[in-house]
Amino acid sequence: MATIYYARVSSKDQNLARQIEAFKRLGAADEQIITDKESGKNFEREGYQALKSVMGLRCGDTLIVKELDRLGRNKAAIKAELEYWKQKGVRVKIIDLPTTMMDLPEGQDWILDMVNNILIEVLGAIAEQERLKIKSRQAEGIAAMPVKNGKKVSTKTGTAVGRPAKMSSKTFREAYQEVLDGKVRPGELMQKLKISKATYYEYRKRLNINI
Fold it and tell me: What is the pLDDT of residues 50-71, one digit of tens each?
């Protein structure tokens, strides 16, 4: 029976050291540690998929992670992954959930499953609420930013934030008249309006302009 440790951070510039240090304290060897530097919303991570491959974890093995959200980003995804490993006969232990680290006598695993399921529900819901709070604070921060030339501007960097403002159909029609009059070419108009070719034809279609 093998024990594998899985660490994940969301981007390549983040550090795995904290998670790996926790594994080392449990006696993990380097060859037992699998890592990913990818978002939790994507389950096609190279390291994580290796755990599920033919050469990966098998019935009777143990998977250890530092925190619950190292498996996924939201409660539904985390529960799905835990159910997957349960069906495979792989024990998942989460360092930050002490009850999952306990070893019970054979035949009493149902007690551990019951406690863990409650913890997962509660902590998963808390994690989702935290994400919603962060998004709400970000939206409030953007709403409070000053407006310059029709765009929200960061008070820290002075740069515009968010998506570019949409161009009105009237603005496009007036600009497109120069193409109809032969004054500019379509490519020149795209550069002038700072729009892509796809956006150019989308506006043209919207105005029922057929050439």
Answer: 999 877 899 989 999 998 888 8
